[in-house]
Amino acid sequence: MIGKVKVNQSFGAMCRYVLQEQAPGKGAEVLAAHGVRTDSAEHMAADFDAVRAMRPGLGKAVLHVALAFPVEEKEKLTNEVMGRIAQDYLKGLNIDPENTQWAVVRHQDKTHPHMHLVVNRVDLDGQTVSDQFIRSRSVDVCKGIEQEYGLIVADQVGRKQAREIGPTPAQAKATTPKEEQSAEWSRARQDIGRALSYTAGHARSFDELREALRPEASSWS
Question: For 155-169, what is each residue's pLDDT tens digit?
Answer without folding.
Answer: 655 454 444 445 656
